[in-house]
Amino acid sequence: MNEPILNIVIGGEAGQGLVTIGQLLSKSLVRSGYHLAVTQSYQSRIRGGHNTFAIRVSRAEVEAPQDAIDLLIALNEETVNLHLAELSARGLVVADAGVKPSLDRWLAVPYAELGSGRALNIIALGVAGALLGLDPGLVEGAVDAFFGHKHPDAAAENQKALSQTYAWCQGKYMDAFQLPRPEAGKRRVVMNGNEAIAMGALSAGVKLCSFYPMTPSTSVPLTLAAQAGRMGLVVEQAEDEIAAINMALGASYAGAPSMVSTSGGGFALMVEGVSLSGMTETPIVIVVAQRPGPATGLPTRTAQQDLEMVLHAGHGEFPRAIYAPGTIEECFHLTRKAFFTAQKSQTPVFILTDQFLADSYRAVKPFEVESLEAVRPAENVQPVALPYQRYALTESGVSPRLIPGLSPHLVVADSDEHTEDGHLTEDLAVAVAMNDKRRRKERVLRQEVVAPTYVGADDAEVLFVCWGSLRGAVFEASSRLAAEKNRKTGVLHFAQVWPLEPSQFLNRLERARTVVAVEGNASGQLARLIRRETGFHISGRVNRYDGLPMTADFILSSLAAV
Fold it and tell me: What is the pLDDT of residues 52-109, one digit of tens each?
Protein backbone atom coordinates (compact mmCIF):
# COMPACT_ATOMS: atom_id res chain seq x y z
CA MET A 1 0.00 0.00 0.00
CA ASN A 2 1.39 3.41 -1.01
CA GLU A 3 1.70 5.87 1.84
CA PRO A 4 0.51 9.48 1.29
CA ILE A 5 3.31 12.00 0.76
CA LEU A 6 3.19 15.76 1.25
CA ASN A 7 5.56 18.29 -0.28
CA ILE A 8 5.82 21.46 1.81
CA VAL A 9 7.76 24.44 0.43
CA ILE A 10 8.65 27.46 2.57
CA GLY A 11 9.73 30.41 0.43
CA GLY A 12 11.00 33.92 1.04
CA GLU A 13 14.08 36.10 1.16
CA ALA A 14 17.32 35.31 2.94
CA GLY A 15 17.08 36.89 6.37
CA GLN A 16 13.35 36.21 6.84
CA GLY A 17 14.00 33.12 8.95
CA LEU A 18 12.72 30.50 6.51
CA VAL A 19 15.57 28.10 7.38
CA THR A 20 14.61 28.42 11.05
CA ILE A 21 11.00 27.58 10.17
CA GLY A 22 12.15 24.65 8.05
CA GLN A 23 14.49 23.21 10.65
CA LEU A 24 11.93 23.51 13.45
CA LEU A 25 9.18 21.98 11.32
CA SER A 26 11.52 19.16 10.26
CA LYS A 27 12.42 18.35 13.86
CA SER A 28 8.78 18.45 14.90
CA LEU A 29 7.81 16.06 12.10
CA VAL A 30 10.60 13.62 12.93
CA ARG A 31 9.77 13.73 16.65
CA SER A 32 6.19 12.92 15.64
CA GLY A 33 7.47 9.78 13.91
CA TYR A 34 7.50 10.83 10.23
CA HIS A 35 10.20 10.40 7.59
CA LEU A 36 11.31 13.30 5.44
CA ALA A 37 13.71 14.57 2.79
CA VAL A 38 14.70 18.23 2.79
CA THR A 39 15.86 20.21 -0.23
CA GLN A 40 17.30 23.69 0.28
CA SER A 41 17.56 26.19 -2.56
CA TYR A 42 19.30 29.49 -1.89
CA GLN A 43 21.13 32.24 -3.70
CA SER A 44 24.68 33.39 -3.07
CA ARG A 45 23.59 36.38 -1.00
CA ILE A 46 23.58 37.28 2.69
CA ARG A 47 20.19 39.02 2.52
CA GLY A 48 17.50 39.12 -0.15
CA GLY A 49 17.21 36.83 -3.13
CA HIS A 50 14.60 34.10 -3.37
CA ASN A 51 15.24 31.02 -1.22
CA THR A 52 13.21 27.91 -0.46
CA PHE A 53 13.24 25.15 2.15
CA ALA A 54 11.28 22.13 0.88
CA ILE A 55 10.19 19.24 3.12
CA ARG A 56 8.79 16.08 1.58
CA VAL A 57 7.21 14.05 4.38
CA SER A 58 5.48 10.69 4.79
CA ARG A 59 5.06 7.79 7.21
CA ALA A 60 7.22 5.77 4.80
CA GLU A 61 10.86 6.33 3.85
CA VAL A 62 11.42 9.42 1.70
CA GLU A 63 14.68 9.78 -0.23
CA ALA A 64 14.12 12.34 -2.96
CA PRO A 65 12.56 15.75 -3.64
CA GLN A 66 9.38 16.37 -5.58
CA ASP A 67 8.44 18.99 -8.16
CA ALA A 68 4.75 19.58 -7.40
CA ILE A 69 3.98 21.60 -4.24
CA ASP A 70 1.15 20.61 -1.90
CA LEU A 71 1.59 23.29 0.77
CA LEU A 72 3.29 26.59 -0.12
CA ILE A 73 4.16 28.77 2.86
CA ALA A 74 4.98 32.10 1.27
CA LEU A 75 6.79 34.65 3.42
CA ASN A 76 6.57 37.24 0.62
CA GLU A 77 4.57 37.90 -2.53
CA GLU A 78 7.49 36.96 -4.81
CA THR A 79 7.27 33.37 -3.56
CA VAL A 80 3.65 33.18 -4.66
CA ASN A 81 4.43 34.56 -8.11
CA LEU A 82 7.36 32.19 -8.64
CA HIS A 83 5.72 28.96 -7.43
CA LEU A 84 2.00 29.30 -8.06
CA ALA A 85 2.24 27.26 -11.27
CA GLU A 86 3.92 24.41 -9.37
CA LEU A 87 0.98 23.74 -7.05
CA SER A 88 -0.48 20.25 -7.13
CA ALA A 89 -4.21 19.60 -7.60
CA ARG A 90 -4.72 19.90 -3.83
CA GLY A 91 -2.18 22.68 -3.42
CA LEU A 92 -2.74 25.40 -0.79
CA VAL A 93 -1.00 28.77 -0.49
CA VAL A 94 -0.38 30.18 2.97
CA ALA A 95 0.43 33.90 2.77
CA ASP A 96 0.06 37.15 4.66
CA ALA A 97 -3.42 38.65 4.66
CA GLY A 98 -2.01 41.62 2.74
CA VAL A 99 -1.19 39.49 -0.32
CA LYS A 100 -4.05 39.42 -2.82
CA PRO A 101 -5.46 35.89 -3.35
CA SER A 102 -5.19 34.54 -6.90
CA LEU A 103 -6.91 31.17 -6.47
CA ASP A 104 -9.53 29.50 -4.30
CA ARG A 105 -7.21 27.40 -2.15
CA TRP A 106 -5.64 30.26 -0.26
CA LEU A 107 -5.12 30.79 3.48
CA ALA A 108 -4.64 34.46 4.34
CA VAL A 109 -2.85 34.67 7.70
CA PRO A 110 -3.21 37.88 9.80
CA TYR A 111 0.41 37.87 10.97
CA ALA A 112 0.12 41.34 12.53
CA GLU A 113 -2.75 40.18 14.75
CA LEU A 114 -1.12 36.92 15.86
CA GLY A 115 2.19 38.34 17.08
CA SER A 116 4.90 40.93 16.69
CA GLY A 117 7.04 41.29 13.59
CA ARG A 118 9.89 39.32 15.09
CA ALA A 119 7.56 36.36 15.65
CA LEU A 120 6.71 36.03 11.94
CA ASN A 121 8.62 32.77 11.52
CA ILE A 122 7.07 31.30 14.69
CA ILE A 123 3.59 32.15 13.39
CA ALA A 124 4.37 30.54 10.03
CA LEU A 125 5.64 27.47 11.90
CA GLY A 126 2.42 27.40 13.93
CA VAL A 127 0.27 27.52 10.80
CA ALA A 128 2.21 24.63 9.26
CA GLY A 129 2.08 22.62 12.48
CA ALA A 130 -1.66 23.15 12.90
CA LEU A 131 -2.46 22.23 9.27
CA LEU A 132 -0.37 19.07 9.59
CA GLY A 133 -1.99 18.13 12.87
CA LEU A 134 1.21 18.24 14.91
CA ASP A 135 0.92 18.33 18.67
CA PRO A 136 1.35 21.98 19.77
CA GLY A 137 3.31 20.96 22.84
CA LEU A 138 5.76 19.04 20.69
CA VAL A 139 6.25 22.04 18.36
CA GLU A 140 6.68 24.33 21.37
CA GLY A 141 9.31 21.96 22.74
CA ALA A 142 11.22 22.07 19.46
CA VAL A 143 11.16 25.89 19.56
CA ASP A 144 12.39 25.99 23.17
CA ALA A 145 15.20 23.55 22.39
CA PHE A 146 16.22 25.55 19.34
CA PHE A 147 16.30 28.99 20.95
CA GLY A 148 17.22 27.94 24.49
CA HIS A 149 16.09 29.70 27.65
CA LYS A 150 18.53 32.62 27.72
CA HIS A 151 15.80 35.13 26.88
CA PRO A 152 12.65 34.32 28.92
CA ASP A 153 10.71 37.24 27.40
CA ALA A 154 11.33 36.02 23.84
CA ALA A 155 10.42 32.45 24.84
CA ALA A 156 7.15 33.64 26.34
CA GLU A 157 6.41 35.66 23.19
CA ASN A 158 7.06 32.59 21.01
CA GLN A 159 4.76 30.44 23.13
CA LYS A 160 1.99 33.04 22.96
CA ALA A 161 2.34 33.38 19.16
CA LEU A 162 2.20 29.60 18.73
CA SER A 163 -0.85 29.26 20.96
CA GLN A 164 -2.74 32.05 19.18
CA THR A 165 -1.83 30.68 15.77
CA TYR A 166 -3.02 27.16 16.59
CA ALA A 167 -6.30 28.59 17.88
CA TRP A 168 -6.77 30.73 14.75
CA CYS A 169 -6.15 27.75 12.44
CA GLN A 170 -8.87 25.55 13.90
CA GLY A 171 -11.29 24.45 11.19
CA LYS A 172 -9.23 25.87 8.31
CA TYR A 173 -8.17 23.10 5.88
CA MET A 174 -7.52 20.92 8.92
CA ASP A 175 -8.40 17.66 7.18
CA ALA A 176 -6.59 18.28 3.91
CA PHE A 177 -2.97 17.96 5.06
CA GLN A 178 -3.00 15.67 8.08
CA LEU A 179 -1.04 12.53 7.28
CA PRO A 180 -1.87 9.17 8.87
CA ARG A 181 -0.40 8.89 12.32
CA PRO A 182 2.89 6.97 12.34
CA GLU A 183 3.35 3.96 14.55
CA ALA A 184 5.60 4.35 17.54
CA GLY A 185 9.14 3.47 16.55
CA LYS A 186 12.75 3.91 17.48
CA ARG A 187 14.15 7.36 18.10
CA ARG A 188 15.54 9.08 15.03
CA VAL A 189 17.59 12.22 14.56
CA VAL A 190 17.55 14.94 11.91
CA MET A 191 20.87 15.09 10.07
CA ASN A 192 22.15 16.29 6.71
CA GLY A 193 24.89 14.83 4.51
CA ASN A 194 27.71 17.10 5.62
CA GLU A 195 26.93 16.49 9.29
CA ALA A 196 27.00 12.73 8.64
CA ILE A 197 30.38 13.04 6.89
CA ALA A 198 31.73 14.92 9.90
CA MET A 199 30.31 12.30 12.29
CA GLY A 200 31.86 9.52 10.20
CA ALA A 201 35.23 11.25 10.35
CA LEU A 202 34.96 11.65 14.12
CA SER A 203 34.14 7.97 14.55
CA ALA A 204 37.15 7.06 12.38
CA GLY A 205 39.50 9.05 14.60
CA VAL A 206 40.20 12.18 12.56
CA LYS A 207 42.68 14.43 14.38
CA LEU A 208 43.04 17.31 11.94
CA CYS A 209 40.66 18.95 9.46
CA SER A 210 42.06 21.90 7.54
CA PHE A 211 39.97 23.92 5.12
CA TYR A 212 39.30 27.20 3.40
CA PRO A 213 35.58 28.08 3.42
CA MET A 214 33.77 27.20 0.20
CA THR A 215 30.09 26.45 -0.27
CA PRO A 216 28.73 23.77 0.00
CA SER A 217 31.56 22.04 1.88
CA THR A 218 32.03 24.40 4.83
CA SER A 219 29.53 22.78 7.19
CA VAL A 220 31.75 19.66 7.34
CA PRO A 221 34.58 21.44 9.22
CA LEU A 222 32.11 23.61 11.12
CA THR A 223 30.40 20.49 12.46
CA LEU A 224 33.80 19.09 13.43
CA ALA A 225 34.79 22.39 15.06
CA ALA A 226 31.76 22.23 17.33
CA GLN A 227 33.06 18.90 18.69
CA ALA A 228 36.79 19.59 18.52
CA GLY A 229 37.41 20.28 22.19
CA ARG A 230 35.42 17.26 23.38
CA MET A 231 36.87 14.88 20.77
CA GLY A 232 40.48 16.04 20.82
CA LEU A 233 41.00 17.23 17.25
CA VAL A 234 42.18 20.38 15.53
CA VAL A 235 40.05 22.21 12.95
CA GLU A 236 42.07 24.89 11.19
CA GLN A 237 40.90 27.49 8.69
CA ALA A 238 43.94 28.03 6.50
CA GLU A 239 44.76 31.13 4.45
CA ASP A 240 43.96 29.30 1.21
CA GLU A 241 43.31 25.83 -0.20
CA ILE A 242 46.97 25.19 -1.02
CA ALA A 243 47.90 25.73 2.62
CA ALA A 244 44.94 23.61 3.75
CA ILE A 245 45.96 20.43 1.92
CA ASN A 246 49.65 20.81 2.72
CA MET A 247 48.82 21.34 6.39
CA ALA A 248 46.77 18.14 6.37
CA LEU A 249 49.55 16.22 4.65
CA GLY A 250 52.04 17.43 7.25
CA ALA A 251 49.78 16.31 10.06
CA SER A 252 49.21 12.93 8.41
CA TYR A 253 52.97 12.44 7.94
CA ALA A 254 53.30 13.03 11.68
CA GLY A 255 50.71 10.35 12.42
CA ALA A 256 47.43 12.30 12.74
CA PRO A 257 44.57 11.00 10.57
CA SER A 258 43.72 14.07 8.50
CA MET A 259 41.17 15.40 6.04
CA VAL A 260 40.38 18.47 3.99
CA SER A 261 36.99 19.69 2.78
CA THR A 262 36.42 21.83 -0.30
CA SER A 263 34.45 22.30 -3.51
CA GLY A 264 35.52 22.21 -7.17
CA GLY A 265 37.17 25.63 -7.39
CA GLY A 266 39.03 25.11 -4.13
CA PHE A 267 40.05 21.60 -5.08
CA ALA A 268 41.62 22.95 -8.27
CA LEU A 269 44.15 24.73 -6.04
CA MET A 270 44.82 21.54 -4.05
CA VAL A 271 45.83 19.41 -7.02
CA GLU A 272 49.59 19.69 -6.50
CA GLY A 273 49.06 18.53 -2.93
CA VAL A 274 47.20 15.48 -4.24
CA SER A 275 50.30 14.55 -6.22
CA LEU A 276 52.42 15.13 -3.13
CA SER A 277 50.25 12.62 -1.29
CA GLY A 278 50.72 10.14 -4.13
CA MET A 279 54.50 10.50 -4.25
CA THR A 280 55.15 10.57 -0.50
CA GLU A 281 52.52 7.84 0.04
CA THR A 282 50.89 9.90 2.77
CA PRO A 283 47.24 9.00 3.47
CA ILE A 284 44.67 11.78 3.33
CA VAL A 285 40.88 12.02 2.96
CA ILE A 286 39.57 14.76 0.66
CA VAL A 287 35.89 15.77 0.64
CA VAL A 288 34.81 17.48 -2.59
CA ALA A 289 31.27 18.91 -2.38
CA GLN A 290 30.26 19.49 -5.99
CA ARG A 291 28.48 22.51 -7.40
CA PRO A 292 27.97 23.63 -11.01
CA GLY A 293 30.95 25.17 -12.78
CA PRO A 294 33.25 26.14 -14.43
CA ALA A 295 34.91 28.84 -12.33
CA THR A 296 32.55 30.16 -9.64
CA GLY A 297 29.59 28.77 -11.57
CA LEU A 298 26.43 28.52 -9.49
CA PRO A 299 27.97 28.44 -6.01
CA THR A 300 24.82 27.50 -4.11
CA ARG A 301 23.36 24.95 -6.56
CA THR A 302 23.98 21.23 -7.05
CA ALA A 303 25.77 19.15 -9.68
CA GLN A 304 27.75 15.98 -10.39
CA GLN A 305 30.33 17.60 -12.64
CA ASP A 306 33.63 16.86 -10.87
CA LEU A 307 34.02 13.09 -11.18
CA GLU A 308 36.48 13.23 -14.07
CA MET A 309 38.38 16.09 -12.43
CA VAL A 310 38.85 14.20 -9.17
CA LEU A 311 39.69 10.97 -10.99
CA HIS A 312 42.52 12.58 -12.96
CA ALA A 313 43.66 15.32 -10.55
CA GLY A 314 47.40 15.39 -10.00
CA HIS A 315 50.35 15.05 -12.34
CA GLY A 316 51.98 11.67 -12.71
CA GLU A 317 50.41 8.29 -12.07
CA PHE A 318 49.36 6.99 -8.68
CA PRO A 319 46.31 5.15 -7.30
CA ARG A 320 43.31 6.58 -5.50
CA ALA A 321 39.80 5.64 -4.40
CA ILE A 322 36.63 7.71 -4.86
CA TYR A 323 33.43 7.22 -2.85
CA ALA A 324 30.11 8.85 -3.74
CA PRO A 325 27.55 8.37 -0.95
CA GLY A 326 23.87 8.45 -1.86
CA THR A 327 22.25 8.51 1.58
CA ILE A 328 22.94 10.05 4.98
CA GLU A 329 23.90 6.60 6.26
CA GLU A 330 26.36 6.13 3.39
CA CYS A 331 27.86 9.56 4.15
CA PHE A 332 28.70 8.27 7.63
CA HIS A 333 29.89 4.77 6.78
CA LEU A 334 31.79 5.62 3.59
CA THR A 335 33.64 8.43 5.35
CA ARG A 336 34.77 5.90 7.94
CA LYS A 337 35.80 3.55 5.15
CA ALA A 338 37.69 6.35 3.42
CA PHE A 339 39.93 6.81 6.47
CA PHE A 340 40.69 3.11 6.77
CA THR A 341 41.27 2.74 3.02
CA ALA A 342 43.63 5.72 2.99
CA GLN A 343 45.64 4.28 5.89
CA LYS A 344 45.74 0.77 4.43
CA SER A 345 46.81 1.85 0.94
CA GLN A 346 48.76 5.01 1.86
CA THR A 347 47.01 6.96 -0.88
CA PRO A 348 44.64 9.91 -1.23
CA VAL A 349 40.99 8.88 -0.91
CA PHE A 350 38.10 11.08 -2.03
CA ILE A 351 34.49 11.55 -0.96
CA LEU A 352 32.33 13.11 -3.68
CA THR A 353 29.17 14.75 -2.42
CA ASP A 354 27.17 17.76 -3.65
CA GLN A 355 25.06 20.69 -2.51
CA PHE A 356 21.83 18.69 -2.56
CA LEU A 357 23.08 15.93 -0.27
CA ALA A 358 25.16 18.34 1.82
CA ASP A 359 22.09 20.37 2.80
CA SER A 360 19.45 17.64 2.68
CA TYR A 361 18.12 16.75 6.11
CA ARG A 362 16.76 13.24 6.67
CA ALA A 363 15.39 11.27 9.60
CA VAL A 364 17.98 8.62 10.48
CA LYS A 365 18.45 6.17 13.29
CA PRO A 366 21.27 7.26 15.61
CA PHE A 367 24.52 5.63 14.58
CA GLU A 368 25.84 2.92 16.89
CA VAL A 369 29.32 4.28 17.54
CA GLU A 370 30.33 2.69 20.85
CA SER A 371 31.82 -0.42 19.26
CA LEU A 372 33.44 1.31 16.27
CA GLU A 373 37.22 1.40 16.09
CA ALA A 374 39.30 4.35 14.97
CA VAL A 375 42.35 4.28 12.73
CA ARG A 376 45.59 4.30 14.69
CA PRO A 377 48.54 4.70 12.29
CA ALA A 378 51.17 4.51 15.01
CA GLU A 379 49.84 1.23 16.41
CA ASN A 380 49.36 -0.75 13.20
CA VAL A 381 53.00 -1.19 12.20
CA GLN A 382 54.42 -4.70 11.94
CA PRO A 383 58.09 -5.30 12.85
CA VAL A 384 60.21 -3.79 10.08
CA ALA A 385 63.35 -5.05 8.41
CA LEU A 386 66.48 -3.09 9.29
CA PRO A 387 67.84 -0.77 8.15
CA TYR A 388 64.36 0.78 7.90
CA GLN A 389 63.30 1.75 4.39
CA ARG A 390 60.20 3.93 4.19
CA TYR A 391 59.60 3.01 0.53
CA ALA A 392 60.66 -0.60 0.56
CA LEU A 393 59.64 -2.48 -2.58
CA THR A 394 56.87 -4.90 -1.61
CA GLU A 395 54.59 -7.29 -3.44
CA SER A 396 51.48 -5.28 -2.49
CA GLY A 397 53.11 -1.93 -3.16
CA VAL A 398 52.38 -0.84 0.42
CA SER A 399 55.57 -0.21 2.39
CA PRO A 400 55.98 -0.44 6.18
CA ARG A 401 55.06 2.96 7.59
CA LEU A 402 56.68 4.31 10.73
CA ILE A 403 55.71 7.64 12.26
CA PRO A 404 58.63 10.07 12.71
CA GLY A 405 59.64 10.37 16.35
CA LEU A 406 57.60 7.36 17.53
CA SER A 407 60.33 4.78 16.94
CA PRO A 408 64.13 4.74 17.13
CA HIS A 409 64.32 4.55 13.32
CA LEU A 410 65.00 7.39 10.92
CA VAL A 411 62.04 8.12 8.61
CA VAL A 412 63.07 9.82 5.36
CA ALA A 413 60.54 11.12 2.83
CA ASP A 414 61.02 12.99 -0.43
CA SER A 415 58.71 14.64 -2.96
CA ASP A 416 61.25 13.90 -5.70
CA GLU A 417 61.54 10.38 -7.01
CA HIS A 418 63.43 8.46 -4.36
CA THR A 419 65.16 5.26 -3.40
CA GLU A 420 63.72 2.73 -0.97
CA ASP A 421 65.27 4.56 1.98
CA GLY A 422 63.61 7.84 0.92
CA HIS A 423 66.54 9.73 -0.61
CA LEU A 424 66.30 11.63 -3.90
CA THR A 425 67.42 9.71 -6.97
CA GLU A 426 68.03 10.28 -10.67
CA ASP A 427 68.40 6.56 -11.33
CA LEU A 428 65.84 5.84 -14.06
CA ALA A 429 65.66 2.14 -13.26
CA VAL A 430 64.76 3.01 -9.67
CA ALA A 431 62.14 5.45 -10.96
CA VAL A 432 60.48 2.66 -12.95
CA ALA A 433 60.56 0.31 -9.96
CA MET A 434 59.03 2.94 -7.69
CA ASN A 435 56.32 3.81 -10.19
CA ASP A 436 55.45 0.12 -10.52
CA LYS A 437 55.43 -0.23 -6.72
CA ARG A 438 52.97 2.62 -6.25
CA ARG A 439 50.67 1.30 -8.95
CA ARG A 440 50.62 -2.16 -7.35
CA LYS A 441 48.58 -0.56 -4.57
CA GLU A 442 45.68 -0.55 -7.01
CA ARG A 443 45.26 -4.24 -6.12
CA VAL A 444 44.82 -3.27 -2.47
CA LEU A 445 42.18 -0.72 -3.45
CA ARG A 446 40.35 -3.22 -5.67
CA GLN A 447 40.08 -5.64 -2.77
CA GLU A 448 38.18 -2.93 -0.88
CA VAL A 449 35.76 -1.86 -3.65
CA VAL A 450 32.17 -1.31 -2.53
CA ALA A 451 29.91 -3.14 -4.98
CA PRO A 452 27.10 -1.11 -6.56
CA THR A 453 23.64 -1.64 -5.08
CA TYR A 454 21.10 -3.32 -7.33
CA VAL A 455 17.36 -3.11 -6.73
CA GLY A 456 14.75 -4.44 -9.16
CA ALA A 457 13.88 -7.31 -11.47
CA ASP A 458 16.61 -9.76 -12.47
CA ASP A 459 15.46 -9.52 -16.08
CA ALA A 460 15.02 -5.74 -16.22
CA GLU A 461 13.66 -4.23 -19.39
CA VAL A 462 14.85 -0.79 -18.28
CA LEU A 463 17.96 -0.58 -16.12
CA PHE A 464 18.85 2.78 -14.58
CA VAL A 465 22.49 3.49 -13.71
CA CYS A 466 23.29 6.30 -11.26
CA TRP A 467 25.78 7.39 -8.63
CA GLY A 468 25.97 9.50 -5.51
CA SER A 469 23.07 11.64 -4.39
CA LEU A 470 20.76 10.70 -7.31
CA ARG A 471 19.99 7.38 -5.67
CA GLY A 472 16.64 8.33 -4.13
CA ALA A 473 15.22 10.05 -7.21
CA VAL A 474 16.23 7.18 -9.50
CA PHE A 475 14.85 4.51 -7.15
CA GLU A 476 11.55 6.38 -7.07
CA ALA A 477 11.47 6.80 -10.86
CA SER A 478 12.16 3.09 -11.35
CA SER A 479 9.40 2.11 -8.92
CA ARG A 480 6.88 4.44 -10.56
CA LEU A 481 7.76 3.25 -14.06
CA ALA A 482 7.23 -0.35 -12.96
CA ALA A 483 3.89 0.44 -11.32
CA GLU A 484 2.46 2.90 -13.85
CA LYS A 485 3.69 1.34 -17.11
CA ASN A 486 3.97 -2.30 -16.02
CA ARG A 487 7.64 -2.39 -16.98
CA LYS A 488 10.33 -4.58 -15.41
CA THR A 489 12.85 -2.11 -14.06
CA GLY A 490 16.05 -2.08 -12.04
CA VAL A 491 18.53 0.40 -10.56
CA LEU A 492 22.29 0.03 -10.33
CA HIS A 493 23.59 2.64 -7.88
CA PHE A 494 27.32 3.27 -7.48
CA ALA A 495 28.42 4.49 -4.05
CA GLN A 496 32.02 3.99 -5.16
CA VAL A 497 32.97 5.31 -8.58
CA TRP A 498 36.67 4.39 -8.59
CA PRO A 499 38.15 1.85 -8.88
CA LEU A 500 35.43 0.06 -10.83
CA GLU A 501 35.27 -3.73 -10.64
CA PRO A 502 33.40 -4.90 -13.78
CA SER A 503 32.71 -8.36 -12.36
CA GLN A 504 30.36 -6.68 -9.86
CA PHE A 505 28.00 -5.16 -12.43
CA LEU A 506 28.79 -5.86 -16.09
CA ASN A 507 26.45 -8.85 -16.36
CA ARG A 508 23.57 -6.64 -15.19
CA LEU A 509 24.26 -4.17 -17.97
CA GLU A 510 24.54 -6.87 -20.62
CA ARG A 511 21.27 -8.58 -19.63
CA ALA A 512 19.09 -5.46 -19.60
CA ARG A 513 17.11 -4.57 -22.71
CA THR A 514 17.60 -0.81 -22.25
CA VAL A 515 20.19 0.86 -20.02
CA VAL A 516 19.77 4.51 -19.02
CA ALA A 517 22.46 6.51 -17.20
CA VAL A 518 21.03 9.23 -14.96
CA GLU A 519 23.57 11.88 -13.97
CA GLY A 520 23.77 15.45 -12.72
CA ASN A 521 26.02 16.61 -15.54
CA ALA A 522 25.82 17.22 -19.29
CA SER A 523 28.32 14.67 -20.57
CA GLY A 524 27.48 11.47 -18.67
CA GLN A 525 30.79 11.18 -16.83
CA LEU A 526 30.12 7.85 -15.11
CA ALA A 527 28.69 6.37 -18.32
CA ARG A 528 31.87 7.35 -20.15
CA LEU A 529 34.01 5.87 -17.39
CA ILE A 530 32.07 2.59 -17.51
CA ARG A 531 32.60 2.41 -21.27
CA ARG A 532 36.32 3.07 -20.85
CA GLU A 533 36.69 0.32 -18.24
CA THR A 534 34.34 -2.32 -19.68
CA GLY A 535 33.65 -1.47 -23.32
CA PHE A 536 29.90 -1.31 -22.59
CA HIS A 537 28.26 1.74 -24.14
CA ILE A 538 25.25 3.15 -22.30
CA SER A 539 23.22 4.79 -25.03
CA GLY A 540 20.31 6.01 -22.91
CA ARG A 541 21.03 9.23 -21.02
CA VAL A 542 19.08 11.45 -18.64
CA ASN A 543 21.21 14.44 -17.73
CA ARG A 544 20.34 17.38 -15.53
CA TYR A 545 22.74 20.31 -15.26
CA ASP A 546 20.59 23.34 -14.44
CA GLY A 547 21.70 23.37 -10.79
CA LEU A 548 18.48 21.84 -9.46
CA PRO A 549 18.30 18.41 -7.79
CA MET A 550 17.18 15.39 -9.76
CA THR A 551 13.57 14.29 -9.24
CA ALA A 552 11.57 11.27 -10.35
CA ASP A 553 9.31 13.59 -12.36
CA PHE A 554 12.29 14.93 -14.31
CA ILE A 555 13.58 11.43 -15.05
CA LEU A 556 10.23 10.07 -16.21
CA SER A 557 9.50 13.09 -18.39
CA SER A 558 12.94 12.71 -20.00
CA LEU A 559 12.48 9.03 -20.86
CA ALA A 560 10.46 9.80 -24.00
CA ALA A 561 13.62 11.17 -25.63
CA VAL A 562 15.52 8.04 -24.61
Answer: 999 999 999 999 999 999 999 999 999 999 999 999 999 999 999 988 887 888 999 9
Q: Which pTM was predicted?
A: 0.95
What structural domains does the chain harbor? 5-169 (3.40.920.10), 190-364 (3.40.50.970), 453-558 (3.40.50.920)
DSSP helix/strand/coil, 227: helix
Contacts of 450 (CB under 8 A, 6+ apart): 323, 334, 337, 495, 496
Give pLDDT tens digits for 143-202.
988 887 667 777 888 889 999 999 999 988 878 898 898 887 778 999 999 999 999 999
Q: Phi/psi of residue 23, each to 5°?
A: -65, -40
Q: What is the rounded distance in angstroms from the CA atom of residue 154 to the CA atom of residue 301?
A: 35
Nearest Cα residue to 124 out of 72, 55, 190, 78: 72
Which residues are 234's β-sheet partners?
208
Q: Tell how many helices (H) and how many strands (E) occur in the chain.
A: 18, 20
The Cα-based distances of 139 to 6, 71, 144, 264 in angstroms read 18, 18, 9, 39
SS (H, E, C) 122-155: HHHHHHHHHHHCCCHHHHHHHHHHHHCCCCHHHH
